[in-house]
Amino acid sequence: MIKKIAFFSVLPSLMLAFAVPCHATGDVVLHSKYGDIASKLEGRWSPDCDNLEGIKIDGHLKAKITVNSNQIVINSFLKEGDKKDGLVGVYLESPLDLGRGGMNLDWDHFSRDHRIAAIKIENESDVIFNWNGFYVGKAKKYQWVSEPDFYGDSGKINFHRCDN
C-alpha cells in the first residue's frame, strides 16, 4: 500500500506532516507548500531589465525589492491571496539597504501585516505589479506611494522576467 503525506498548517511557519494510507493506483505526485506560484515567480522582474533592478523572488516566496536605487532596498515575503482575484500579496519584512533618503523613513511604524504591493501573473514572462506603498498603522494610510523608481501613474506597472 502506498502512503501519502498529509500536511496541516499549525502556524504560518509550522506545518505537521502525517503518513496516511493512500489507495492510489497511478503515479504519486509530490506538491510543494509554495507550489506553482513560487515556480512561476522565481527570478528577477523589472519594468526595465536594463535600467531598474526591480524585484528578485526566490523559490520560497521571499523577495528583495529595490524600491529606489541606492536609497531603499527591502526584504519582503509573498503570500498567495484569494483564488478569485488571482493576486499574490507582497508584504514588508525589513529594510535591507538604506541610503540617506531611506534612513529618513520611520521603518518601525510601517506595518508588516498590510500588503505593500500585489502581483497579478499575466503569463510566464509578464506580471502586473500594483504598488500600494508602506502602510502606517497609526495614521491608517500608505506612505511612499508614488516615489519608487518603478512607479507608474496608476500604481500598476508591467514587470517583465529578466534574464539575469
List keywords for this structure.
single chain, 164 residues, mainly beta, 8-stranded antiparallel beta barrel, two-stranded antiparallel sheet, 2 helices, 7% helix
Describe this entry's structure for a reader:
The protein is mainly beta and 164 residues long. The protein has one domain: Beta Barrel (Lipocalin). 7% of the residues lie in helices and 49% in strands. The protein has two helices and twelve strands; from the N terminus they run ββαβββββαβββββ. The strands form three sheets. The chain has an eight-stranded antiparallel beta barrel with strand order 3-4-5-6-7-8-9-12. The chain has a two-stranded antiparallel ribbon with strand order 1-2. Mean pLDDT is 84; it is low at 26-34.
Principal-axes geometry comes out as globular
Secondary-structure element order, N to C: EEHEEEEEHEEEEE
Give the CATH level 1 class: Mainly Beta
State the distance separating the first and last CA atoms.
Answer: 45 Å
Beta fraction:
over 45%
Radius of gyration: 18 Å
Tell me about the largest β-sheet. 8 strands, antiparallel, barrel
Enumerate the strands of the largest sheet in spatial order, edge to edge or round the barrel.
Answer: 3-4-5-6-7-8-9-12
Q: How many domains comprise the coordinates?
A: 1
Q: Uncertain regions: pLDDT < 50 for 5+ in a row?
A: 26-34
Overall CATH architecture: Beta Barrel
Structural class: mainly beta
CATH topology: Lipocalin
What is the oligomeric state here? single chain
Task: Report the count of strand segments.
Answer: 12
Helical proportion, percent range = under 10%
